[in-house]
Protein: FAD-binding monooxygenase
Organism: Penicillium argentinense
Amino acid sequence: MGERSLISVAIIGGGPGGLGTAIALAQIPFLNVTLYEKNPEPRETGAGISLGANAWKVLDLLGASQGVKGGSKSNTHQRNAYNGKVLNVVEHPETSDAESRGSIRARRTRLQSALLARVPEGIIQFNRKLVHLEDLTDSGVRLVFQDQTEVVADLVVGADGIHSGVRKYLFPEHKLRFTGNTAWRVLIPNSRLTDIPEITTTTAWWWGESGHVYFSDVDEEYEQSDPLFEITIRSYNEPEIPGKTVGWGIPATNKRVFARVKEFDRRIRDAVNLVGEGEWWEFAGFAGPRLDKIIGWNKIALIGDASHPLSGAFGSGATFAMEDGWILARALEYTQFLFHPIQDALEIFDKIRTPYYNKIYEHLDESQEKMQQFRAQNKEFDAILQAKIDLMLYGDKDFIYKNDISKTWKEYFQDEKRQHRP
Ligand SMILES: Cc1cc2nc3c(=O)[nH]c(=O)nc-3n(C[C@H](O)[C@H](O)[C@H](O)COP(=O)(O)OP(=O)(O)OC[C@H]3O[C@@H](n4cnc5c(N)ncnc54)[C@H](O)[C@@H]3O)c2cc1C
């Protein structure tokens, strides 16, 4: 048998999805992988990130879980934002195996560093913003970058986030819209807040009518002399300001942020007042129509936020993105000796991940519908809030938070074998 030629893969974007995909694909000998990131260096401004059992499973597969440490000591409280009343407490398990490892809140930079450390040297090119794609039919995809350079790749992975440029080429009619939902996020030293009662002692959501506040450790205490603490404020009905409502992090003034909590409990206001001017980052939420297919041109896969523009619903988007990349790697291994290895691998990737995303969308729709029905029958804030918390905490979401992506692959593989058995 003659020598096999390498398949060239261009990954666009170095978020959790792009980095996870680079790690998984770089382990496959017949792939030649390059990741193109538009920023001049690794950049992550989004404060903390929640990682649960599904995240540990894929991070274990990528060999990156050891590097991700975060705050996990406290139980999670749900509270009324106006009077602080505790409405629910969920206790976190003290275990450390992947099966039952509880959710942690980590600095986003920790996840990023852990992934970066697992990407082999020479794969990532910074300062490479993709500006154009062309389908060369049987000869791959032509990629043009802002610096006027070009490459041709056999397979392109669009891991370029919710505002994906790659998606625009595959689905030009797909348009994002501002959801009205905006988040302000900050990490500050825990010690700044310890004098305020009940703020740093637990992870807590304080719910108001048109927004909420989230407080959480993002560090393991023993690791840092002055661990960091996250405050995220969300407002659900912000007006769109042309040119200013953007999806990436922009600095926000204290006045702008304080206005969203001015009617909340004193402890929230005190905490927000201890954030220094210039420390807040603002993120406007965007969402778009759901995609029926997350592949195109027989040589492009969309992964992570590029593939399911859900605007952070379920707080697990980084894990979804890494799972996508890992499945794509398995599919490429599986089809390597077939006549159309890339096309067939993409079909498998789509066959596994699109139904999974559909299940997530269905869950989202059902929850929204239940909430609408409840609101139609109940006008009291307390009752509506309790229903919202119950839906958030107790709906069946194991298929998300306990998802074992290696099991998904095994099941697919067994199914295939069964179907092709003579
Ligand atoms: C407020 C908020 C809170 C969230 N909380 C959580 C949470 O707790 N847990 C969780 O798992 N998820 C959370 N998410 C979702 C999570 O952040 C995303 O799902 C995740 O970052 C998606 O990863 P990604 O790699 O697909 O995209 P991104 O992280 O958006 O990365 C895309 C990368 O592509 C690069 N890029 C873009 N365009 C180009 C181009 N043209 N050329 C080259 N590079 C390009 C960008 O610079 C970026 O580095 C939250 C989201 C929001 C908005």
